[in-house]
Amino acid sequence: MVRTIRRYRDVMSIRAVIWDFDGTILDTEWPAFYAAKVEYERVGLELSFEGWSTTIGTANHRTWSDLLHEQAGDRIDSPELVEQRYRTLKNEMTDSNPVMPGVSRLFDQINELGLGCALASSSPIGWVQRHTTRLGFWDRFEGVATRTDVGRERTKPHPDLFLLAAERAQLDPAFCLVIEDSNHGVTAANAAGMTAVAVPHRLTESHDFSHAAARLDSLEELDLADWV
Fold first, then answer.
1. pLDDT of 8 strictly over 60
2. Residue 197 and residue 145: Cα distance in Å, rounded?
3. pLDDT band at residue 66, thresholds of 50, 70 and 90?
4. N or C: which end of the chain has fewer CB within 10 A?
5. Residue 89 is part of which domain span?
6. Active-site residues: which are they?
7. Please, are residues 97 and 27 in contact by the beta-carbon 8 Å criterion?
């Protein structure tokens, strides 16, 4: 396999990995976008791919459903029905997705190298715990921080989630490698004094990751031994 790591700057050796969840461990981002897009199309509207992309990684923004009701007015069904259809389709698509390529190997490598392991997500705890449990990863985390802990306004790009995850796992932020899929996440990791690797997908590949320590095309390219 040809490795296409684009490393932007040298960093100190790491002692722990802090994961993002959505779009990094599991592709939940495309199901969320697609399910919302379907609801927009029901009333003859188009959901902006570019606009959606700017919200990935943070919860500090207006919800798509609020914007849809504002734009569609009387053409739309009740908020409860719209939300039910959205969640049903999003969950069906998400539940059928495998973990992102390279994730399972990296969890094994974390164990082999004796690295700490934590998770920081702008999603609520119920969502994160349900999926990481069914995938068999929940017990791998020594510390977890989610939107439930800090509130929408203090999710990424603020550093709160990463600092709280590190505190709960008793990790030194200066020696943590963060794996992220969004520019908001990389910004938050940097603000927490951590090193961030960006692994974008189709919804975030246009993000500016010049502030990341490296940008990878896939987690399969990441060898943690290069960072310890």
1. no
2. 19
3. confident
4. N
5. 29-95
6. 20, 22
7. yes
Residue 85 burial (CB count, 10 A):
15
% the chain with pLDDT above 70 = 95
Angle between helices 29-42 and 64-72 (to 10 degrees): 10
b vs e for 53-64, b when ≥16 Cβ sit within 10 Å of the residue's Cβ?
Answer: bbbbbbbbeeeb
Closest CA to 172 of 14, 57, 28, 33: 14
Task: Name which of 31, 23, 34, 137 is nearest 94 in CA terms.
Answer: 31
Q: Domain total for the chain?
A: 2
190 and 136 in a common domain: yes
Q: Note whether 44 and 79 are same-domain residues.
A: yes
Given 38, 73, 95, which residue is the final one in a domain? 95
1 assigned to some structural domain? no
Domain boundary among 73, 95, 117: 95
What pLDDT is recorded for position 106? 99
39 and 17 assigned to the same domain? no
Q: Is the peptide bond before 157 cis (omega within 30 degrees of 0)?
A: yes
Which residues make beta-bridge pairs with 116?
A: 16
Give the integer Cα–Cα distance in Å for 150 and 4.
36
Whether residue 228 has pLDDT greater than 50: yes
Instruction: Please report where in the chains the tokens 């908020």 appear, as a residue.
Output: 79
Q: What is residue 141's three-state secondary structure?
A: coil
pLDDT at 64: 80
Classified as helix, coil or strand, 156 is: coil
Burial class (CB in 10 A: 0-12, 13-18, 19+), 139: exposed
**111-130: buried (b, 16+ CB within 10 Å) or exposed (e) per residue?**
eeeebbbbbbbbbeeebbbe
Which amino acid is present at 77?
D
